[in-house]
Amino acid sequence: MTQEELFKVLVAHCKEYGFIFPSSEIYDGLAAVYDYGQMGVELKNNIKQYWWNAMTRLNENIVGIDSCIFMHPRIWEASGHVGAFNDPLIDNKDSKKRYRADVLIEDYLAKIEEKMNKEVEKGRKRFGEAFNEEQFRATNPNVLREKAKYDEVHNRYKKAEDANDLAEYKQIIVDCGIVCPISGTCNWTDVRQFNLMFSTSIGSTSEGASTIYLRPETAQGIFVNYLNVQKTGRMKIPFGIAQIGKAFRNEIVARQFIFRMREFEQMEMQFFIKPGTELEWFKKWKEQRMKWHVNLGMGAENYRFHDHEKLAHYANAATDIEFLFPFGFKELEGIHSRTNWDLGRHQQYSGRKIEYFDPEEGVAYTPYVVETSIGVDRMVLAVLSHSYKEEKLENGETRVVLSIPAPLAPVKAAVLPLVKKDGLPELAQKVMDELKYDFNCQYEEKDSIGKRYRRQDAIGTPYCITVDHQSLEDGCVTVRERDTMSQERVKIEDLRALIDKRVNLNNLLRNL
Ligand code: ATP
């Protein structure tokens, strides 16, 4: 199966097993908006809890808030979103489809890169042990030809980006012969800027109504509460404020499932520090956040940093943590050293003094900020795409299993009476009552035990507990483990401890 096919299968699996549904499906859906089903919401909540506890419980100097989606419209002028939160868009006149001009060019560049990598792989196969990749890249004529093409387009693109030169974006698209995947033509409109913020009006009468925005990021809710939290929490710098909440962006290109949504959720933490210490904290948070990811056990090789070449005007360092999604390495989290830009702008726009008085040094300053910002939905997609496996079994059958890190699994244990009679359901219910206060458990008595195991594998349940006739006599049950499918007899009173050992979120947190 190619990665593309695998991705389609995953999307279908997410729907079939109650993880993620297209929004408003009975009305034919709403592009780039998705609902979480009964399994998805549990997975999502577990991810949020892992993040929240890692931030606010493991760091005594980080506290949480929950600010509103609606905020004073001036906030978005101060933050620069009204003026500059734009994407360059382009339409194909034949298909009437809309694209992001920068994404069209980046995809074109990625294809050239892919071609070069394919040549390298061919070389590796041909030369075996003796293969020297560096030398091959420097001398192979096919690679060199592609590299020259890549560099030329890349340089033009970066210059156009720096100069915000929309006409040049279009010229690159035309010169590279980039066509619309739907119409197959190069019949493009000019490139225009498009603001990504959704607006609506507030106020009970239309006369008194004024335009407000749905927040495109949660961070500004933290900045405008900086003084409140610092004062009421008697926080001393360095300290952080964490928040999880919805954000909205009118993304031009709706694609890649929950990777790019118009309504999504962010987990952001702004860390307030003394000016001059920001690069040290930036490095610390880079390490800390990577550790949080790798700690899940989804393979350190599936993550990488991508340091920004071009920094936003307010940032003096920025990096992305990228994850290997089925469509390649893409941004999962951003870590930015934002200087005192945001607080400075809010000071200017609100007229309020936003400063910190350092009692030890006797000086006042506007704090600098290092932020960590991760999309909950992208994290859900990372977990699901990494966990989905189709395994060939010894008997020739295939089983679909989601090897979700156990503490994040939606259901931790399934309790299954072998048959629906002879007092087994009653004993199984007792087992449920024993476990349900500690873990999200599912009780299932329909279908053969084999089918029930498969259903639990498909939603990633780490343990299946089967109650059989012998259980009535010896008080033991069979515990089947998801990944190895190994089975063992366990006393009912020992179940809680056995499950807890593997699924307790605190065990993950202790390794951080
Ligand atoms: P991209 O370049 O992919 O559009 P971004 O750089 O605009 O992302 P940020 O503004 O840094 O993203 O937002 C922080 C995080 O929020 C991202 O790392 C991502 O995980 C998440 N995020 C941003 N936009 C979306 C979206 N449309 N859908 C889902 N998650 C998103």
Key traits:
binds adenosine-5'-triphosphate; seven-stranded mixed beta sheet; 512 residues; Herpes Virus-1; Rossmann fold; alpha+beta; 23 strands; five-stranded mixed beta sheet
Task: Provide an overview of this structure.
Helix 5 runs antiparallel to helix 7, helix 5 crosses helix 8 and helix 7 packs antiparallel against helix 8. This protein has three domains: 274 residues, BirA Bifunctional Protein, domain 2, CATH 3.30.930.10; 110 residues, Herpes Virus-1, CATH 3.30.40.230; 109 residues, Rossmann fold (3-Layer(aba) Sandwich), CATH 3.40.50.800. The protein is an alpha+beta fold. It contains 18 helices and 23 strands. 40% of the residues lie in helices and 25% in strands. Helix 14 links the parallel strand 19 and strand 20. The strands form seven sheets. Strands 3-9-10-16-13-12-11 form a seven-stranded mixed β-sheet. A five-stranded mixed β-sheet has the order 20-19-21-22-23, sandwiched between helices. Strands 5-4-6 form a three-stranded antiparallel β-sheet. The structure holds adenosine-5'-triphosphate (ATP). Adenosine-5'-triphosphate binds next to strand 10, strand 13, strand 16 and helix 13.
